[in-house]
Design brief:
Chain lengths: ~110, ~110
């Protein structure tokens, strides 16, 4: 299994809602990532987890809260988002801790904040 | 400031020809450079990785070069096919850090 699975594929939420994005991989990878991608722009790093511990937070607003319950799962909890947070949210994993080599990406969650 | 620059204009190419994409960077000391392919509405897919001490890497119809003096990588798709139509992203990781940063990507359109 060489897939990173993200759910849901699409999400529409209001500014007062609380929702969660989920990501799962069964490749035994110990590094997992959240990226945000706006239309026609490159992916931008949000968070990195290495061995289930948060190792990088790219100064992301606290309305985004990551969680890594175990080595296969990564969540992104969303609360009180703004319309400008609408984007494609990509999860990725890699085998080697901290080296960022050969990332496997999921298909993403297309988020719309109304 | 740090920059990773790719040609933002789409590259239109005839089937069977070689597509050449450029990735230039400034104020980076990359340990290695990666190329990814991204189709609309999908996540990037890893293609090739080249390290700072390597000049060239090949995989099937793909070839990447890395010139740390020029601060440039070239990505070639030989015998291009319509199925190669996508956006191609280069990405850098510095030796001192563990953050992967992407360039803006170049869209390639291969016409039959």
């Amino acid at each position: 299994d060489t897939e990173v699975t993200q759910t849901p594929k699409h999400l529409v939420m209001g500014m007062t809602n609380k929702k969660s994005l989920k990501c799962e991989q069964h490749m035994g990878h110990r590094a997992m990532y959240w990226y945000k991608q706006k239309a026609k722009k490159p992916p931008e790093l949000m968070f990195v987890y290495s061995y289930e511990k948060l190792s990088i937070n790219e100064s992301v607003p606290s309305r985004f809260s990551p969680e890594c319950p175990n080595s296969s799962l990564l969540n992104l909890h969303l609360h009180a988002l703004q319309p400008e947070d609408s984007a494609l949210y990509l999860c990725a994993s890699s085998q080697n801790r901290g080296t960022n080599e050969k990332l496997f990406f999921g298909s993403g969650t297309q988020l719309s904040v109304l | 400031s740090q920059k990773i620059e790719q040609n933002s204009e789409a590259l239109n190419i005839q089937e069977g020809k070689t597509a050449t994409l450029t990735c230039n960077y400034t104020n980076y000391s990359p340990a290695y450079l990666q190329w990814y392919r991204q189709d609309p509405g999908r996540g990037p897919v890893f293609l090739l990785l080249i390290r700072e001490n390597e000049k060239e890497k090949r995989k099937e119809r793909l070839k990447v070069t890395f010139d740390t003096t020029l601060k440039q990588s070239l990505f070639h798709i030989t015998a291009s096919q319509p199925a190669d139509s996508a956006t191609y992203l280069c990405a850098l990781t510095e030796a001192a850090g563990n953050k992967l940063t992407f360039g803006g990507g170049t869209r390639v359109l291969v016409k039959p």
